[in-house]
């Protein structure tokens, strides 16, 4: 595979609040605000003969609800919103699916792994709950001050998701959805979430990548307390490797950042980035260290509480990857903390 030298951004304009910017016939771009450092999410509208399909719904937040109200009034009156395809279970993607269903009747389409994970988080099932996550991070060396602050914050998932649809249409790998005269093939990826759905269409080649392929930031890949010895980073690298088999001229529509071309180059960049991180971790293991002790090795900045959750999950993911590869070994000390050393 020959990678293009650069990543290119063919669309300089971006949609304003309540706008739906046409990128291709029958395909429109929505951009909604997020109340985080990652300050926006891209949503997509696909036109059909008798209605619209949305890809992702946004976070349960007043600003996004107002944005959707404007979009529905301006674009979805003559043709109603009929379905919402949700790429994965994170609140900025699933958060308003039920809200949209209640207002428009649009049904939710999502993979089973994502919906089951959403239900587990929403209802705080054992080891999908905050207590399980805090205990997990303590076992990986998170200091008591930050662990206690995290526990005091309380769970946030149910506040960012306006309920869950009572039923859904299940998506699986290889499904082909006929939307507006185009065939969209379901590609399931792993690592960022259990069964993340991306959509690919030919002529012209377009990939709605969700969070699996972002143009400027690396996708968060974390180990969850429910699967403490899992290797999500290995699954993620395998998944983006499969995306790299798509045509080089594919227009990638990511959930964050601008639409871009240069899919092969971006996959190569991400693979190289993680190889650099693996080397940095191995270089820091002159003595056994915990995932928390390795945060300064993997990240060059301080974190707020929200970011600490992602950083701890990523640190553990890099260590689990290296353990699965036989390059580090894990020991548990008398303090109950897991530490890793080079083999």
Assign the structural class, choosing from mainly alpha, mainly beta, alpha/beta, alpha+beta, or little secondary structure: alpha/beta
The CATH class assignment is Alpha Beta
Gross geometry:
globular
Distance between the termini: 33 Å
Main pleated-sheet profile: 7 strands, mixed
What number of structural domains do the residues give?
Answer: 1
**Tally of strands:** 15
Q: Order of SSEs, N→C?
A: EEEEHEHHEHHHHEEEEEHEEHHHEE
Strand content: 15-25%
Q: State the fourth-level CATH superfamily.
A: Ribonuclease Z/Hydroxyacylglutathione hydrolase-like
Number of helices: 11
State the CATH architecture: 4-Layer Sandwich
**Named CATH topology:** Metallo-beta-lactamase, Chain A
Question: Which stretches of 5+ consecutive residues score pLDDT under 50?
Answer: none
Cα gyration radius (Å): 20 Å
Structure report:
With 343 residues, the protein is α/β, with parallel strands linked by helices. The chain has one domain: Metallo-beta-lactamase, Chain A (4-Layer Sandwich). The chain is 35% helix and 22% strand. It has helices spanning 62-75, 91-94, 97-104, 112-122, 130-139, 144-153, 157-160, 232-243, 263-284, 295-298, 305-324, and strands at 21-24, 27-33, 40-47, 52-55, 81-85, 107-111, 169-171, 176-179, 182-189, 196-201, 206-210, 251-254, 260-261, 328-332, 338-342. The strands form three sheets. A seven-stranded mixed β-sheet has the order 1-2-3-4-5-6-7. Strands 8-9-10-11-12-13 form a six-stranded mixed β-sheet. Helix 5 runs antiparallel to helix 6 (144-153). The longest helix is centred in the C-terminal third of the chain and has 22 residues, at 263-284. It is globular and about 65 Å long. The mean pLDDT is 95.
